[in-house]
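Work through this protein:
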Amino acid sequence: MSSGSFDIAVAGAGMVGAGAALALARNGFRVALIETVPPAADADDDGAYDLRVSAISPRSRAILEGLGVWQLLERERVCYYEQMYIWHQHGHASVAFDAVDLARDNLGAIVENRVLQRSIHNACERDPKIEWFMPDRVVELLENGAQEVELRLGGGRCLRAGLLIAADGRNSPTRDLARIASQAGRYRQTAIVANVDTELPHRHTAWQRFLNTGPLAFLPLANGQSSIVWSCDDDFAERILAAGDDEFCAALGEAFEFKLGKITGCSARASFPLGWHRCERWVNNRVLLIGDAAHSVHPLAGQGVNLGFSDVEVLASLIGDGSQLSGQKQLRRYERQRNSETWVATTSFSGLKWIYGLEQIPLTAIRDLGMRIVDETPWVKRAMMQKAMQNLT
């Protein structure tokens, strides 16, 4: 059985885990990056877009630019959106946000998860301070002390590190090995994702309609299609997933009020159950949680990965060039800061889902009034946009 010694080990090489490995390597740390699933062969040779996309905020883009990742993206597959339009099935009010109001070129960018992850991996592979262990996984924590953690991989190798970062998703096995408890629940909704063709162009606008059955988002893609995320109550999702393409497209167009005309084509559909989880503790001795291992939010705002990139930014800043790695003080500061910020985001998104799900006439009237005030008061709208870009990322 061979062994290795590293400053930091990262379990999970998704967008956030690999981003953390890259940021910490740039700070001078020697990093072990452990990933269970080897990268699949490129599946976009036929030009088809990934069904899973992320809305990358300006702050996250700046983080990725600082790491040299954004520059590696295939520019023709990145779509910058300039406006956002939100309305509700019941009521007559709506809110429209425009980058012009903030004197910006755009409000963010829609990027395929696969494309972004590949760019981060390419940057990691170029960094001599990162050593890959793939395919492999953490199967046992042999020691989790005040100064060092020792772990055993499925392939039999043992590693020692000053810090182990659990970035292996919402069902994180590493979190369980570290005996960090999590609270979880279901929204009783299913998210349906697909890429669709529309009769009218998307106008570089992100659209969000709140329905009785859940929120529906249309996100613009660089090829002119729209990526849809239709969050439905479970029983409705089961019925609509079983529908044929023509019936699905007709139902989708009606749910979207044909804002982009008829839905003229649809890719294969995928779905996943929606739930939430959070952890009271993010640190246990030398094991630290990051990204989905620590938190998750409803996809109605498309902000989950931005919270993860903010985790990366704060952690890399707090432990600096290594002088703060050996002590617990900075790790606890990270835990306090990110736990409170993501709690606000999680409760805000859950609150939005609840507010927009109300159907009682007096409450819908109040909701419409609030939306109208936001839309018709420029300084309120600017403040909300700035707050979202600064704190929900």
